[in-house]
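Figure 2 data, in text form.
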Amino acid sequence: MPTYSELAAPAALITFILGLVSGSFVCEVADRLPRHENFIYGRSHCESCGAVLSWYELIPLLSFLFQHGRCRRCGAVLSPRYPLIETVNGVLYLWVLFRYGLTFETLIGCLLASALLGLSLIDLKTMEIPYGFNIFILILGIAFTIYDRTDLPGHLIGLFAISVPLLLIQLISRGRAIGGGDIKLMAAAGLLLGWKGIILAFVLACIIGSVIHLIRMKFFGQGRQFAFGPYLSAGIFISWLYSDALISAYLSLVL
């Protein structure tokens, strides 16, 4: 029987390939959903000449490299956004695998990573988080809560721990301070992470968002309004991977 170390390299390779393929799908969803196009059955095409792409032009990352970043028919320069997102998704999958190994947590974490990446791309473009992404993360939360049913109260409390305060802020501000999609995201992710994990995720999101947006305001002329979804997604992903370690480290400092 092969040892874990002998399985590590093939598992990593397969995981990265799955990440690239999933990343390609994330690209399609992020592009088509805001335009209300069918991302399941619609054929991929060149944005410049409209030519339908063949299967060998849709191989994640490799097609872009082999075609030197250009359309085979019209020669138009293809956006590097597609291979970049595919690669980022592949790296996120590897990150989850290296953290959890071949476990159920890795499966949930990889699906979560793709969902968070997709909703972040759309939120950056439209300032809205599509309802379907939050439903998908809620399904992941239900599945993991059943798997981790010994901590059922923690998961159920997590459903409300951040989402209810944010809902109150939305009501008081009449929708100016926080979006409904952000509230639904924190509810769904709260069920998945539990109350400790979702509080940590929100704190991390606020820190990351404050630092990055202040830099964008100072050096890139960004206004005060910004999409919070990407920062919430970063906090959720980090919390999924390292909540126990980060919470323990914090408690050791303050106690």
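Caption note: The chain has a mean pLDDT of 89.
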